[in-house]
Design goal:
FAD/NAD(P)-binding domain, alpha/beta, FAD/NAD-bd_sf, FAD/NAD(P)-binding protein, 17% strand, L-asp_N-monooxygenase_NS-form, 4 domains, single chain, 22 strands, HpyO/CreE_NAD-binding, five-stranded parallel beta sheet
């Protein structure tokens, strides 16, 4: 019987695993006499998958510049399999328009026009990225080694048959059903859609009963936003990338336009001001979040000095030392190392790129900085001595909680938030602030190292439940923000009165307005009510959008393959347990006490698929043993990988993960 592998998910992650399988298949004995069949399964176009499919609005961009996107390994990547170089996104575009790629022609229409003008610092559309990902997959298929046969299935991996991972049922989009005998299954389906949580389900029920509109967390591009009538007041909770998509689709997507006004005050971009020209189909969007501000804009400059030498204070050596202590607290023992590492990147660039704004040489500062703890008065004194301007100093408290001291009426809050966003925009597009990029470089390094520490069991269960999500949220806000032009658009919409900021600590509830005849007053009809820590008063609206992805949950997933695996007891979501002596309010925020226990024990589910970090085998069933045939890789697993595409020449954790998974899959499928 021919050996086979099923990859569930044909987007960038599944394609990346397939590329690594193809690269190493000959080393595992795959040849004409010993073939291996790989089945790549996805209802969406293979290569691009759901998120990057061509069939979406041409207004939606990537959050990475064209020079910062590649699907190919290079000589910086430390992995077992062979390095197979290939063009980055910008290199692919340049080669296509130069006719340097055999068989590749310019895409038709608007995407072709975009390829002609694409530059390294351009933020491409997602439609363009779809074409690049299609090229990557076709190149893999065109260069398969002898004996490796790939079958593309447009459909869903629907279930394991009779509870056996060795037999998978695929429901094809043409209505047919296929059952495949397989030696290994790889779950590479990306972010998990999930049915509403209990809290979200309660909102759904109440909204339907009261005639209100509620949009639960999901991919914004899949939301039926046309159902929101023009002129409606809308509350949005969340200011990350899902909100940016929401903003684009509700305004430009309805025919609104942005125009440059070179005569107005600068909006922080250094290029004048952007104004919004309405279409007449606008809604009135009120938005807030936990932090209360948008994610920081992407930097649009390069380092003036050399790249900071990284890692310096938080690298493999520190990981090994932390692991010798057993499980540690991220906030107490790891965060000071992360903060010091990011500070190292910041002040390295400030000294080398802007020597006129510091009073010390780099050698002097570096030697003294290295000897000091992050949380020390001596470190603060050194920074105050070396960096006279407070705006040139790294302030994590301000970055993490920028509105901590703000408590204002709605009009004052708008002025404050506009100034904040304009300042953030300036700091990320003006080369006077390249220290931000130095910090970003160190932040990426620290994130990869912290992921390794967490995946190797280095954190306490409590720290994984509380601290890891805090750190990942802070990382996303600093490193995974939108292109600067999106913040210009946000400012234009705010000035035009179509977007209103609600600030930090937003809370949204339903007011049924059925008390004391209040329903007779127009301002007390049933509606959503938003309040917040930064805002005096409240805002009411008939429509509420939870502008974020659904929280991961294997048990609530709508993915049929994961549901089948869970139903048959093959896997379950990660569950953490620990003794707790915290205050009740901290407990209530994350989990429930175990009844009857002498010492309070907390049980908390992360919702993620538990995997073994070394090879991405699923830790299955109740015993948590590595499954011999089932693998999972991506954001739905306990090995957290950066969500953005890989930058060239960065020894990407994603490439290393794909390769480690592929090596284990090949060993499982071939018996090598």
């Amino acid at each position: 019987m021919a050996r086979s592998v099923v990859i569930v998910g044909g987007g960038p992650r599944g394609t990346g695993v397939l590329e690594r399988l193809a690269a190493s298949a000959p080393d595992h004995g795959v040849d004409a006499e010993h073939p291996l069949d790989v089945h790549l399964v996805d209802p969406y176009p293979p290569g691009a998958g759901r998120i990057w499919r061509t069939a979406q609005s041409e207004l939606l961009w990537m959050n990475s510049m064209a020079a910062d996107v590649t699907m190919y390994t290079d000589d910086t990547v430390t992995c077992t399999g062979p390095i197979v170089p290939g063009p980055s996104l910008i290199e692919w575009a340049e080669q296509v328009r130069d006719g340097a790629l055999d068989g590749e022609t310019l895409p038709e229409g608007r995407v072709g026009d975009e390829v002609r003008t694409l530059r390294p610092n351009t933020f491409p559309t997602r439609q363009l990225q779809s074409h690049y990902l299609d090229f990557v997959l076709r190149r893999v298929l065109d260069t398969l080694p002898e004996g490796l046969r790939v079958h593309l299935h447009r459909g869903r991996a629907a279930a394991i048959v009779d509870g056996d991972v060795r037999r998978v049922r695929i429901d094809e989009t043409d209505g047919t059903c296929t059952e495949i005998d397989t030696d290994a299954v790889v779950l590479a389906s990306g972010h998990l859609d999930a049915s509403p949580s209990d809290d979200e389900a309660a909102i759904v029920e109440s909204a339907e009963r009261l005639g209100l509109q509620y949009f639960p967390p999901e991919q914004t591009t899949d939301s039926d936003l046309d159902a929101i009538e023009p002129g409606r007041t809308v509350i949005a909770r969340g200011m990350g990338l899902a909100f940016v998509d929401l903003m684009v689709l509700l305004y430009e997507g309805r025919g609104g336009r942005f125009v440059e006004d070179l005569t107005g005050d600068d909006d922080g971009s250094g290029r004048g001001r952007l104004d919004y020209v309405p279409s007449g189909r606008e809604v009135f969007l009120h938005v807030g979040s936990g932090r209360g501000v948008p994610y920081h804009a992407k930097t649009e400059y390069t380092l003036r000095g050399p790249r900071p030498p990284l890692p310096r204070f938080f690298g493999p050596e520190q990981v090994e030392e932390l692991l010798t202590r057993g499980e540690v607290s991220l906030r107490d023992e790891v965060w000071p190392l992360i903060a010091k590492e990011v500070g190292w990147g910041w002040y390295h660039e400030l000294h080398h790129g802007h020597p006129g704004r510091v009073t010390t040489t780099w050698d002097d500062f570096a030697a003294r900085y290295a000897a000091l703890d992050w949380y020390s008065e001596a470190r603060e004194a050194l920074v105050a001595e070396a960096v006279p301007a407070e705006s040139d100093r790294l302030d994590f408290e301000r970055l993490d909680r920028p509105l901590a001291e703000v408590d204002a009426d709605l009009d004052t809050l708008q002025k404050h938030l506009r100034e904040y966003v304009a300042d953030d925009l300036a700091r990320h597009v003006d080369p006077a602030h390249t220290a931000e990029l130095g910090a970003f470089t160190a932040l990426l390094s620290a994130y990869m190292v912290s992921s390794e520490l967490a995946s190797r069991g280095g954190l306490t269960p409590r720290s994984k439940a509380f601290d890891l999500s805090w750190w990942q949220n802070l990382f996303s806000s600093m490193a995974s923000g939108p292109p600067g032009p999106r913040l210009r658009q946000l400012l234009a919409l705010s000035r035009a009165g179509f977007v209103t900021f609600l600030g930090a600590g937003i809370d949204v509830r339903i007011d049924e307005a059925d008390d004391d005849g209040a329903t007779e007053r127009a301002d007390r009809r049933p509606g959503f009510v938003a309040t917040g820590a930064s805002l005096q008063g409240e805002v009411r609206a008939p429509t509420f959008v939870d502008a974020r992805l659904a929280s991961p949950s294997v048990r609530r997933t709508v993915d049929p393959m994961l549901a089948s695996l869970t139903e048959h007891g093959v896997l379950d979501e990660e569950t953490l347990r620990w003794e707790e002596r915290a205050t009740p309010c901290a407990l209530d925020a994350v989990a429930e006490r175990v009844e009857g226990a002498t010492t309070p024990v907390v049980v908390h589910s992360t919702g993620l698929v538990p995997v073994q970090a070394s090879d991405f085998r699923v830790l299955s069933g109740h015993d948590g043993e590595p499954h011999p045939r089932l693998f999972a890789v991506g954001p739905h697993t306990t090995v957290r990988l950066p969500g953005a595409f890989t930058r060239p020449r960065t020894n990407s954790l994603s490439f290393r993960a794909n390769d480690a998974c592929a090596q284990a899959v090949l060993a499982s499928a071939t018996g090598a």
